[in-house]
Each structure stands twice: as C-alpha cells, then as structure tokens.
Amino acid sequence: MRLHLLLLLALCGTGTTAAALSYSLRGNWSICNGNGSLELPGAVPGCVHSALFQQGLIQDSYYRFNDLNYRWISLDNWTYSKEFKIPFEISKWQKVNLILEGVDTISKILFNEVTIGETDNMFNRYSFDITNVVRDVNSIELRFQSAVLYAAQQSKAHTRYPVPPDCPPLVQKGECHVNFVRKEQCSFSWDWGPSFPTQGIWKDVRIEAYNICHLNDFTFSPIYDKSAQAWNLEIEATFDVVSSKPVCGQVIVAIPKLQTQQMYNLELQPGKRIVELFLNISKNITVETWWPHGHGNQTGYNMTILFELDGGLNIEKSAKVYFRTVELIEEPIKGSPGLSFYFKINGFPIFLKGSNWIPADSFQDRVTSELLRLLLQSVVDANMNTLRVWGGGIYEQDEFYELCDELGIMVWQDFMFACALYPTDQGFLDSVRAEVAYQIKRLKSHPSIIIWSGNNENEEALMMNWYHISITDRPIYIKDYVTLYVKNIRELVLAGDKSRPFITSSPTNGAETVAEGWVSQNPNSNYFGDVHFYDYISDCWNWKVFPRARFASEYGYQSWPSFSTLEKVSSTEDWSFSSKFSLHRQHHEGGNKQMLYQAGLHFKLPESTDPLRTFKDTIYLTQVMQAQCVKTETEFYRRSRSEIVDQQGHTMGALYWQLNDIWQAPSWASLADHELLSPTNYHFLSSLKEAVGLCKAQITAIISQQGDIFVFDLETSAVAPFVWLDVGSIPGRFSDNGFLMTEKTRTILFYPWEPTSKSELEQSFHVTSLTDIY
Ligand code: BMA
C-alpha cells in the first residue's frame, strides 16, 4: 500500500511542535451498487462511470448511443467504501477531521459504522469531526443516493407550487428536476451535452489531525487606496483553536520583492477564530499591476506568512499575490439612453473579447492539467482575453484559475444556476449559502476573476415567461428569485468579497435591473447591461440583424465536429447527416436543419454521389458557415465599441457561445479536439454560391520539421476559399486554418501538443477547400 502521509510542517529545532498531520484517502476504494450485484475497485477522485469503464464493465460512455444504454448507472444507489490504517498515532491528537473536498452529490457518510454526516451539494467542501470515532484501523463508507431519484423526490415534496422546468426538452434525452439538486446542472443534459449524472467522490478526501490550533484557510485581497495612492493587502486567516487556553504569538507577513515585511501580535481564543491583517505597501515602492492578456504583464509577487505561536508552533504559508483593480462602469452615454456597461482594469477601459466556458468533460476525473493548459493557452493564442465560466457547469478546479491568473485571462464567474427557477426552502438555501461562502473563499484571491454573476438567464426566464406562469402567480416566483440571488447570494458576496462587482444574472440590465426591483421587464435590453443573442433564421452575413448592445455575453451558431472526431464514437452506418446517430447527437431542436439553412444562404450544399463524401463535406460546410457567422457578428460588436447609431452602441464585450465541447456532438463550440479556427480576415463581395470561375483546387503540402514545430509548405493549383487543414486525432494547433488561399504557395506552422513525427503527420494529413464540394 502506498502511504499518502504528508507532514504539513517541518519539525525544526528543539521545542518546535508539528501543528498538523494529514493523511490522504486518495487512491483505491471499493464500489458496489444498490443490491450488491456489482462490486468493483474504483479510484478516488473519480466516479462510478469511470470505475466501470476502467474495469472493462462498460464501453466508452460517449460511444454511439451509450448515454441512453448507461442510464441505469445514475439511477442506481452506489456505495464507496475503504478500510485503512492511519500511519501515525492517532490518540496523540486533540482534534481529527475528515475533509471531503468534493462529493457528487447525495450521500450519507459512515465512519467505523457510525453515521458522521450527510452531503447534498457537489460544490461544497465538507469537514466532519471524527475525533471520537477514529481509531488506528478504520472503515469509511459513503452511501450515495441517485441524484436523479433525489431530485424527483425533492420536487414531489415541494407541494405548494411547481418550480419549473420539470424536465428538459425531449430532444435532449435528459433527466428531470435538476433545479432541485445542487449538482452540475448540465449533467442532466443540455442542448449541447449528454445526460451523465455521475456519482462519486470527485475531489480529494483526507484526514487531518492537529493539536493546539489549526489554520483552516487564508485569503487575501489587494485594495488600492486612491487617496493615499498606495496598495494594501487585506489578509484573512481562519483558525480552529483546540487548546483550552488562549494561544499567543506573532505573525510575520513578507513580500520580499516589494521590500515589505510586517509583524503583528496575535492572541487566539479557543474555538473558531478569524484573524484579519492589513498589510500596507509603501507608496514609494513601485508595484507592477496584473494586466489582462494583450494589455500588459501578469506580474505576481511571492508572499510568505509565518505564524509563530506558543509552544514552538510554527505555521508557514506562501502564495502569489497579484495587484489589480476592477470596476464595472455604468454611467450615462451621450446620445444614447440607458447606461454603459464596461470594465475598467487598473483604471483603464478594456473591451472583453472571448468566449464562454463549459465543463471540459462529463467525467471530471478525465480533465487533466494538460487539457486545461492546452485549452487556456489556445484562448490566449487566439487573442482572447476573457472567459465566462457559465452557470450550468461547475466552479472550475483551482488549476483553471491559477492558469487564468498566469495567462492574463479575465474570468466572468457565474454562480451555478442556469435556465431554471429554483426552490428557496430552508434546506436548499442553507446548502446554497454554504456553497457560496466556500466558493468565495476559495476563489477570491484570484485576480483573473473580475465579476461574480448570480445565474445564467434566470431573470430572463422569469420575466420573458419561458415557463408560462400565470401573471397572478408571478410574484411568488419573483419573491423566490430575490430571496435566492439578492438576499442570500448577493449578501454573501458583499460580506465576503469587496474586491470585484456582482450582478444578479446574465443577461441583466445591471443598475436598471436593481432599480426595477431586481427583475427588469426586458433583461435583454440594448441600453443596459449585457445581452444573449441567438438568431438562426436571419442571414448572418447581414450585420444589421445583430443587437447593438452594450455587452454581448453570449451569441453563436452551431456546427458539427470534424469527421475525425466523430469517427471515434460512431460506426459506418452512422455516417450520414440524417442517420439515427446524427439525430441522436443533436440536442437542439431543429439544429441540423438550421445549420443547412444558414449554410445554404451563401454556399452550395454538398451533393456528391458518394454518401460518405457528402457527410464529410456537410460537416466541413457547417464549420465554414459557423466561422463566417461568428466572425461577422464578432466584428460587428468590435466596431460598435466606438459608434452610437440610432442611439445604440458603445459595445464593450463580445463573448461568443461557446469555447469548448463536453462530448463529440454538434454544438456552438469552435474549439473542439484541439483545433482552432483562424482569426484571419477577408471580405467576400458576393455569396460563394454565386461566385463564378471557382475551379477545383489541388492543394499539396510538403511537411518538414524544425525542432518541435512542423512546417507545412502548401501549394495550390487555384484560388481556394476556406482551406481546412486536418491532421486527424493528432493534437496540436495550426498557425492559421480555414483561410482563403489566393496566392500559389503558403507556409503554415503546426505546433503539436504531444510528441509526433513527420511520417505520422503525413499519414493523417487531409486538406479540404470549398472547391472540393463545388
Ligand atoms: C444559452 C446558454 C446555454 C445554451 C446556449 C445555446 O441559453 O446559456 O444555456 O446552451 O444558449 O442554446
């Protein structure tokens, strides 16, 4: 057995005490289903689906129709258990806690056969006192209840009035009542995603033992004092003091690069204690601020905090501190009614250009550091500076935000509520309050997060009456809305984090929403706040159809993923646009028809005699259509920054829907299987279907290697629009793609993300241009 024993603090010098020991319960556990007919090993962190797959008991869940075939997994009630010996003398410790960083979702926890607690929120962190039940040899059991069954029970128990929507649209093939459970909302299906309501322990589990006192967590917020023209740092440390007497000592906070060191005296009374420290940085020292990508550096400073307490107890922590200010500016605009809606970073107005982020996989244990880094690096490589972490997914893992800090990606952080109304009974609110307080603490020290937003589209759902609520019943739902997002979530944000703005919803009218009692008649107004805009009927080459809004936080068009992506999860009979598979993977009503309609406005639709060729060409054309539509719309928003036309304009943000995909299916994503659409610009004087003189372009490539990079020297026999270079499943990025080739030769670079060879690339290489289907 591998011991995961971590000595948190070094024993240094005579009389120095180890403050705490931590023993991780990561690794192998046993899993069994409700009636005991299935027993298997499973990894923690992980989930039942992944364990079944790893044992060869199920196929890849994303293959063909397996989302339906494997529905039984999430309808069963599974148990995770483990027996273990603690590799240190447990009786020597005054307090022992079981810490669960993430449990998915509904479970009862037994420790040495004693029930020690329950969980009902995958976004919360749980800590249970096990001092009186822990022994040297222990057993632990998490008895899960299916989140789908739990959600149904909760909805049924809510008898006073319904809380819609009951179920997702049939086309999504999902589960019902997700709004009654604090779990990733899109795990019950979405209009781009499958239904995989996982069960399991999705984050770290450990045992923590300590004497005297323990530092539970610490946070910090840099605050700029305008009048003194100096930076300060507010530090907050939370302690559990288990000593029966007060614990005294001192704290030393140091930021060497800023020549800053400060010492404070400390007296901690027994019990849970919060220590607040205020660090002044001399105004004579130049502090380099953190800037978004494209606007400056992301300078950070190493800080250490050393608590030297009675009895030789030393607790030392270190962190990277970044300094930046953020303001949301809502002020009158000359020549336009309403208010502006834009962000100033370090006092400088910045256009937010980027996209919306969804969970990178249905099974979070498959989301690796490498995947996050590749996706986020692609964001900056494409010259984006912002991602919106959308409210139907998850609060992302720490590494996501650390990378955003490092890369200069601004994060618009939703709280995890989306496209639904929510209950507000006390149990639900208590769970949400714990979740929100915890997430604020966990995330507030990241400079990348520039705004908190209460939910995704719930103000709009309510006020545009998506669920056909009678006008007489509406006040009940407005009251619930205000209770949840204003009286609870907003209150917690204001108390826990003064360093960034909060809005109740997206889209919202900002200050106007507040003035109208927290719900606006039309939350999607062009004159206030942000908008979400989707139109699949109008011609997307006509920029006049787009709203000249203050801030477009969602807009987009669907396309199909590349054939090489689909090939892995389908079989030959699936390879046509009208196959059962193609209909099954499309979760947006009418989506496949909408794509062909939009493509048909400017392109000839593929009609090869070879059905596979037609399928591949159709996929390609949906991507070309999507690229053109998103380009036209994005350029419109960028132009609208400096214009007021018909009293509308001053757009200061364009975040298209959506950056990434959760599985291989049609969606609004333009970054899937690690490919990146090009930012290159060009203008067509007519629809391509009317262009005359286009003839079939023979495009060849000579591939050579230069260090880690591959050079593709292309040559074409004719003008070729939308040249698409494809290297199958070899992950990497082309320096340009989807481009118009008017010149005879062109050199494109390929940056592989994993080691590959020239011959592998030559074998996988495939090039398509519009002339192939004309
Ligand atoms: C918005 C988003 C998502 C959805 C997208 C495309 O409503 O917030 O809920 O996936 O549009 O329909």
UniProtKB/TrEMBL annotation:
Keyword terms, alphabetized: Disulfide bond, Glycoprotein, Glycosidase, Hydrolase, Lysosome, Signal
Catalytic activity: Hydrolysis of terminal, non-reducing beta-D-mannose residues in beta-D-mannosides
Primary enzyme class: hydrolase
Keyword Hydrolase: yes
UniProt EC number: 3.2.1.25
Region forming the signal peptide: 1-19
Assigned protein family: Belongs to the glycosyl hydrolase 2 family.
UniProt name for this protein: Beta-mannosidase
Organism of origin: Mandrillus leucophaeus (Drill)
